[in-house]
Design brief:
By secondary structure, the protein is α+β, with helices and mostly antiparallel strands. Helix content is 22%, strand content 36%.
Length: 357
């Protein structure tokens, strides 16, 4: 079963979707999904990501702009003429049909013989590790197995573009991690063009070649997962991807690449990222902070432990400082700390980014 040769690019050119005169679900959005890549549309509820996915599928029509699949203008084409398949959040399996019948359903009008359809469906089930499950009903499968059947039913149609609408949201945390790895592995092995919608930033970081983070119908930032995590363009991106601490600071000076930044009683040297001297915001990832038992006057802030939580692999602390509360994760456990303890915190390495105030 070869799908990569059919994979196609997706392009949005200044696409908007309005409902009536007031609600703008998607606002003048432009992006390209290269053939054979997985791009995630990420963002909070109501940001426009699902509407964008539905416009690719043809389930919604844009109010303005154009949509291209494989270079072909599909803006006004119905779903049946777009050569895309979608994996839904609810799986949408037919409960009275067996696994093989569910997977074969979309091939009924393909012109293939019944035997050829069954062979193709079995080949697709083999790809997702469901050989031997042909005669089971959906009710006899686990959630993860049902999700695999839903993916297989979409795969067997050999679409140019495969769409995922929050496919893992009905699974528990452990199974969600395993299934996201399975989806990513399958997408890469087959070279599938895939557009994936989720509100889970960890899931997006794990599966994506690129992430398009949306907010209020617009693209907040578009880039590789590491770009969004390490180089957020604003407070929204920094907070949504990885939950950064956003603290007031002051840029004292800057040269071609670096800024001298005052944070409370300490100064730091950081890439300036185009931020001018004066008031600014410092985004600090929870893992970028380090606890100290004793002060380092030039490089540590005095803090009081407000909350401590043990999570097996690490501790989580909320610290009260003169520049605001700081949430940190500590994987060393080297300095046990309890609520009410006086302690010090420093920022020795990566995970800090200057942002405009």
């Amino acid at each position: 079963m070869t799908i990569s040769s059919r994979s196609a690019s997706v392009e949005f050119r200044n696409v908007s979707r309005r409902y009536g005169q007031v609600v703008v679900a998607v606002d003048n959005v432009s992006f390209t999904v290269a053939a054979g890549t997985l791009v995630t549309l990420l963002g909070p509820s109501g940001c426009g990501k699902t509407t964008t996915l539905r416009m690719i599928a043809g389930l919604e029509m844009p109010t303005d702009g154009q949509i291209f699949i494989g270079g072909k203008n599909v803006t006004t084409l119905p779903p049946t003429e777009r050569d895309v398949s979608m994996v839904f959040q609810s799986y949408a399996l037919f409960p009275h049909m067996t696994v093989l019948e569910n997977v074969s359903y979309g091939l009924a009008g393909s012109g293939l013989s019944k035997a050829a359809i069954k062979d193709k469906a079995r080949d697709a089930l083999k790809l997702v590790g469901l050989t031997g499950y042909d005669d089971r009903l959906p009710s006899e499968l686990s959630g993860g197995q049902q999700q695999r059947v839903a993916v297989t039913r979409a795969l067997v149609l050999e679409p140019q573009v495969l769409l995922f609408d929050e496919p893992l949201s009905n699974l528990d945390a452990k199974l969600r991690r395993r299934m996201r790895d399975d989806i990513r592995d399958l997408q890469q092995r087959l070279g599938l063009t895939s557009v994936y919608v989720t509100h889970d930033q960890e899931e997006a970081l794990a599966v994506s070649d690129r992430i398009i983070l949306m907010n209020q119908g617009k693209i907040a930032q578009d880039g590789a997962p590491q770009d969004l995590y390490d180089r957020p363009v604003d407070r929204f991106v920094a907070d949504f991807i990885g939950g950064a601490n956003l603290l007031p600071c002051e840029v004292l000076s800057r040269n071609d690449t670096e800024a001298t930044v005052r944070l409370g009683t300490i100064t730091l040297k950081l890439p300036h990222r185009g931020v001018d001297t004066g008031a600014a915001t410092l985004a600090i990832r929870p893992s970028a902070a380090q606890l100290l038992a004793q002060a380092r006057p030039e490089s540590s802030l005095a803090a009081e432990v407000k909350k401590s939580t043990y999570l097996g692999t690490h501790w989580e602390y909320t610290l009260v400082t003169d520049v605001g509360d700081i949430f940190i994760t500590d994987y060393t456990g080297a300095i046990p700390a309890s609520p009410g303890d006086s302690i010090h915190v420093t920022f020795p390495g990566k995970g800090l980014a200057l942002l405009p105030r």
